Amino acid sequence: MSDRYRAQHQRRLAWMPWLYYRLKPKHRAWAEPWQAQLQAQLMALETVTIAEGCFIAPDLALFAEPGRPVTLGPRTMIAAGCFLHGPIDIEGEVSINHGCSLDGGRAGIRIGAQTRIAHGVTIYAFNHGMALDQPLYQQPVSSKGVTIGRDVWIGARAGIVDGVTIGDHAIIGMGAVVTKDVPAYAKVAGSPARVIGDRRDSA
Predict the structure, then answer these.
(1) According to the model, what pLDDT value does residue 1 have?
(2) What is the pLDDT of residues 153-178, one digit of tens each?
(3) Which among 37, 69, 33, 75 has a CA at the least distance from the CA of 54?
(4) How many Cα atoms occupy the beta-carbon half-sphere of 130 within 13 Å?
(5) pLDDT of residue 58
(6) Beta bridge partners of 159
(7) 187 pairs with which residues across the strands?
(8) Helix axis angle, 3-15 relative to 25-45, nearest 10°?
C-alpha cells in the first residue's frame, strides 16, 4: 500500500470511524499500531484513560488537566474535528461523530454505554451568570453536570445544556435544544425540546 493511499485511508477512518471495526486483516495490520501510537501519546500528555478497542481521530482536541479526567470505555470511537474537555466519563461502545463539542465544566459529563452522538452536537456542563451588575464575561460560572443514559441517540446539531439528565434509550431529534430532563424511552424535538413520543409505542 502506498503512503498516499494509507494517508487517505486514515483520513477516511477519522471521519467515519465505524469503518475501523470493519477493516480487513491487511489494513488492520497498520491501523491498529497507528491507533495504539496516537492513544499512547495522548495518555502520556493528558489525564485520560483509553480502554481497549477505541478509535480516536488524529485531530481530536482532548484536554484533561489533573482533576478534570477523561475516560473512554471499550470500543468508543471519536471522529474528526471533535473537542472534549474533562471531566468526561464515557462508557463502552459510544460513538461521537465529527465536529462535536463537549465541555465537562466542574461537575462533568457522563455518557452511558452504546449511546450514539451525531455530527455537530454540543454538550456543555457549565453556565454563566446573567446578573446585570457586571459584564457577562465577568459573571461567576456554575456547573451541575450532564448525565446521558445508555443506548441514547442524539441527533445532529442538537444542544444539551448544564444540569440535564437524559434517560436510557431516549432519542433527541436533530437540532433540538435540551434544557430539561428527558425521560427514558422518550423522543424529544424542538427548541426548547419537548416530548413528541415514546419509543415503546412504535415497538
Answers:
(1) 65
(2) 999 999 999 999 999 999 999 999 99
(3) 75
(4) 1
(5) 97
(6) 122, 177
(7) 171, 197
(8) 70
169, three cell numbers: 434509550
Based on DSSP, count helices (H) and strands (E) in the chain, helices before strands: 2, 22
Cα atoms in the Cβ-side hemisphere of radius 13 Å centred on 72: 25
Annotated active-site residue 98? The verdict is no
Write the DSSP symbol of residue 184.
T
- Number of other residues whose CB lies within 10 A of the CB of residue 132: 6
Identity at 181, one-letter amino acid code: D
Tally of residues, the chain: 203
- Report CA-CA distances (Å) from 186 to 89, 166, 175, 194: 23, 9, 16, 9
- Active-site residue, from 9, 27, 98, 128: 128
**In Å, how far from its chain's centre is CA 84?**
7
Question: Which pTM value belongs to this model?
Answer: 0.95
> Grid coordinates 500500500 are at which residue?
1
CA-to-CA distance for 185 and 197, rounded, in angstroms? Answer: 9
Alpha-carbon separation of residue 155 from 120, 133, 145, 175, 177 (angstroms): 9, 38, 20, 7, 11
Type of residue found at 162: D
